Structure formats: structure tokens, C-alpha cells
């Protein structure tokens, strides 16, 4: 036992003695049976906590806020009450950028949390530095998943996102995909159906770019930070993004150029706009300023809260191929934790993605259930029937893909974003943009490999 653990254990014992003494004093002037029952409860709790030794504290760093954080706190409290020998401590670390930086700093200081939210690309970098734990032995061990909620019940695309060679380095948590948000009132007024192809999307954007009741409406919207979804457009065009095995950029291709030209043409002719200063397009969409936009299905609750028109979500319009990025973070476990903490953390991770909890999480937040049994359940099917805006996301598994996990993918995307923004905001030509994107992205990958 380390000195710190010894100190914590001694402090815990002293507190127990102090509480017992206080209970003894108070019983002199109170109800003896009531105090005896209270002491019996305390002894029972202490016994439960001590059956496998000291209480194992699991620290979970996350980037959840608002409704998402409230759900996480509620479920964590429930878990802690059910597991007297485990204490999960939640630590919010701001947004994902903040979380990433703090995890790197903690790793350098050898002070990592037990578990944390992390994208697949982050986990790949952690693995290259031997920072994370292979969960496979726990998954296959006697305390792994049960038959009803087996590991294989986790949707294949999410298992793939956590598989690195022969290792499993995380479990899926808040997972989402891109969908097309559509203003049905504008569609009906234009005499259109929801677009299913690039050609239909382009035509619908043009027809719905108009003036409605004195309001200027733009047909199509693209979110800021398109570097995080440009792989989607390139794959839909029939191209490849990155060769993950050989860490080589592949998108400087005719398909890559076609994707950039498609986006740029709509921006140039005014039938599409970027989110720009609005930051997210849910606002312009619910205000009626934009007729359609592509965004995460996790944004559904935000649109539901403010929308005053008839709207829905539909699957992504396809180009040559149907391709939908399945994104979001996993929960990974850090190797600096003790074996006892790791076992405790694994119990908590399994709990968060149980069939019951992943359904409740999806219904509450708009994220996707991560289990096939959840998707097939009567509860989820009934929910989707009552809330059809959730149908589009879960209909796209056939075209699902995960982000390529190359060294320092964050730096690669930053490099892509810098060049892409020059086209989106400063009129750079698609061909020049594509060339510069590829060069800068490859340089970022090569630098990370050294």
C-alpha cells in the first residue's frame, strides 16, 4: 500500500471511530432501538465495503455538460449505491479540447485518471505510449459480460472503434452519426421530397434558397469545423481518406476533388452557407433561416427544444457511395491505475452500457444505443415510432465507418481544417485546397511518427 493510500485508509478508520463515538453519545438522550438500527446499518455497509478490502476509488474524467452530465451523475450515484466497495468520482474537464490536453498533461506527470472519455484516435496515441489497458482479458474473464448482454452484442462498428490489433482498449459511450435535418414546411412549399442523393440535395438547396414571408432562406447549411466530416464527403464520392495501416493520405484524388467541388459550388452560388458566427446550425435551422443542414444526431434535443415548425431528420444523401461516419467517444482505462481499481472501473464501464442504460442514454440525449439488443428492443422501437426523428441515425449502420486512427490525428485534422477553411471562407480554389490539405496532413502524420 502506498503512503498516500495508507494515509487515506488511516483517515477513513479515524472517521469511522469518530462517527461511532458520536453515535454512542447521542444514544444517551435518544431512541436506543433507532440508534441500534442505525449502527447495524453502518456495520452492514462497512462489511460490504470491506469484503474485498478497501473501497476502490475510480476517477472518471469526462467532457459532459448540461443534460448529459446530469444523466451521468444520476447513473453514477446509482452505481455507487449498488456497489459499496467502489466509489466512482466524476471530474468534468471542460470541452473535448480541454479534456485532451489535460489527459496528455496528466500522462506526462504520471497522474492519469482511472478512466476517461477518449476518441479512437486519442486511444491509438495512448497505446503507442503504453498508457492504456487492454480490456480483452477482463472481457473474456469470469467477471466479463454475461450471456444476455455479451460483448458481441455491442454493435460491430463500435467494437471496431475500440479494437487495436489484438487488443480492446475501450468501450463505446456517447456515439453519434451525421444526419440531414430538414424543414418539412419548406420542402412541402417547394413541392419536394427529402433528398436522397447529392444531385437531389443540390437541386433542393437551390429551390429552397428563396424569400419566405420577407425572410431570406438559404437552402443548405454546413457546420463549422468541416475537417471533422470531410472524410464523409470523400468516401461518399467513392474515394479513400487515409491508409491507416501505412499512415498515408489518400484523399488527393479525383474523388477528393469532386467532394470539395460539390461543397464549394453550393457555397459559391449562394444556395448553401456555413454556420459561421452562429457556431452551430441548429439555431439558424430552428429560426427558419436555413432549410436543411447536416449535423450530429446528438443535436436532436437542441432542435426539439426550439423548433416551431414541422421538421425531421433523414439519412445522409449519398454520392457514388453511401457513407456515414459513426463518431463520439469511448471510455478507456489508464495503465497507471492499480489492478483493483481497474477491476472496479470495468464494472462501472459495463454498467454504463448495459441494455437498460444505453437505451435510457439514447432517449435522454439523442446519442445512439450501442447494443444490438437495445436497438431491437420493444422499448427502443416504440420510442422511435413515437419520435421518428431518431430513425435516420440508426438506419445508417450499413454504410457506417469510423475515423482513420493515424498518429496525432488531431494535428492532422487541424492541418486539414486550416487549408479547408481557406476554401470555405476565403475563396481558395478546390484543386489548390485539396493539394495543400494533403501535403499538410501528411506532414502532420509524418511528424507524429518520429
TrEMBL record:
Q: Which coarse location class applies to the principal site listed for this UniProt protein?
A: other
Is Transport there in the keyword field?
A: yes
**Where are the annotated segments for Disordered?**
25-55
Q: Name one Pfam family in it.
A: SBP_bac_8
**Where is this gene product found?**
Cell envelope
Q: Does the keyword Signal apply?
A: yes
Keywords, alphabetical: Signal, Transport
Any one cellular-component term (Gene Ontology): cell envelope
Q: What Gene3D superfamilies does the database record attribute to this sequence?
A: Periplasmic binding protein-like II
Quick one: signal sequence residues?
A: 1-23
Q: Where is the composition biased (Basic and acidic residues)?
A: 30-50
Similarity remark: Belongs to the bacterial solute-binding protein 1 family.
Name of protein: ABC transporter substrate-binding protein
Amino acid at each position: 500500500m502506498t503512503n498516500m493510500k495508507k494515509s487515506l485508509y488511516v483517515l477513513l478508520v479515524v472517521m469511522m471511530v469518530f462517527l461511532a463515538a458520536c453515535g454512542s453519545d447521542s444514544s444517551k438522550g435518544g431512541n436506543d432501538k433507532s440508534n441500534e438500527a442505525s449502527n447495524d446499518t453502518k456495520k452492514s455497509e462497512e462489511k460490504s465495503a470491506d469484503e474485498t478490502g478497501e473501497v476502490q476509488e475510480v476517477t472518471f474524467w469526462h467532457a459532459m455538460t448540461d443534460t448529459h452530465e446530469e444523466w451521468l451523475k444520476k447513473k453514477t450515484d446509482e452505481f455507487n449505491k449498488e456497489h459499496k466497495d467502489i466509489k466512482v468520482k466524476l471530474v468534468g474537464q471542460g470541452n473535448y479540447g480541454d479534456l485532451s490536453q489535460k489527459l496528455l498533461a496528466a500522462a506526462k506527470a504520471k497522474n492519469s485518471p482511472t478512466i476517461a472519455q477518449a476518441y479512437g484516435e486519442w486511444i491509438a496515441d495512448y497505446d503507442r505510449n503504453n498508457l492504456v489497458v487492454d480490456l480483452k482479458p477482463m472481457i473474456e474473464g469470469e467477471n466479463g459480460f454475461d450471456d444476455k448482454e455479451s460483448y458481441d452484442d455491442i454493435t460491430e462498428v463500435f467494437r471496431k472503434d475500440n479494437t487495436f490489433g489484438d487488443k480492446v482498449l475501450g468501450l463505446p459511450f456517447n456515439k453519434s452519426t451525421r444526419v440531414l435535418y430538414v424543414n418539412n414546411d419548406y420542402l412541402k412549399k417547394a413541392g419536394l421530397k427529402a433528398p436522397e442523393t447529392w444531385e437531389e440535395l443540390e437541386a433542393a438547396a437551390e429551390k429552397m434558397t428563396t424569400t419566405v414571408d420577407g425572410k431570406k432562406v438559404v437552402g443548405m447549411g454546413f457546420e463549422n469545423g468541416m475537417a471533422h466530416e470531410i472524410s464523409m464527403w470523400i468516401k461518399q464520392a467513392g474515394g479513400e481518406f487515409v491508409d491507416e495501416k501505412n499512415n498515408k493520405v489518400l484523399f488527393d484524388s479525383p474523388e477528393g476533388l469532386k467532394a470539395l467541388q460539390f461543397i464549394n459550388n453550393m457555397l459559391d452560388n449562394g444556395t448553401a452557407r456555413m454556420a459561421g458566427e452562429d457556431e452551430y446550425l441548429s439555431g439558424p435551422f430552428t429560426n427558419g433561416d436555413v432549410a436543411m443542414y447536416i449535423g450530429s444526431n446528438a443535436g436532436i434535443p437542441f432542435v426539439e427544444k426550439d423548433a416551431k415548425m414541422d421538421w425531421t431528420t433523414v439519412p445522409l444523401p449519398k454520392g457514388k457511395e453511401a457513407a456515414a461516419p459513426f463518431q463520439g467517444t469511448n471510455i478507456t482505462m489508464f495503465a497507471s491505475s492499480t489492478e483493483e481499481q481497474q477491476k472496479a472501473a470495468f464494472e462501472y464501464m459495463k454498467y454504463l452500457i448495459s441494455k437498460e442504460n444505453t437505451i435510457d442514454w439514447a432517449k435522454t440525449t439523442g446519442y445512439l444505443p450501442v447494443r444490438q439488443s437495445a436497438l431491437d428492443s420493444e422499448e427502443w422501437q416504440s420510442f422511435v415510432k413515437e419520435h421518428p426523428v431518431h430513425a435516420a441515425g440508426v438506419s445508417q449502420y450499413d454504410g457506417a465507418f469510423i475515423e482513420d486512427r493515424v498518429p496525432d490525428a488531431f494535428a492532422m485534422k487541424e492541418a486539414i481544417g486550416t487549408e479547408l477553411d481557406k476554401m470555405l471562407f476565403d475563396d481558395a480554389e478546390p484543386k489548390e485546397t485539396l493539394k495543400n490539405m494533403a501535403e499538410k496532413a501528411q506532414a502532420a502524420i509524418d511528424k507524429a511518427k518520429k
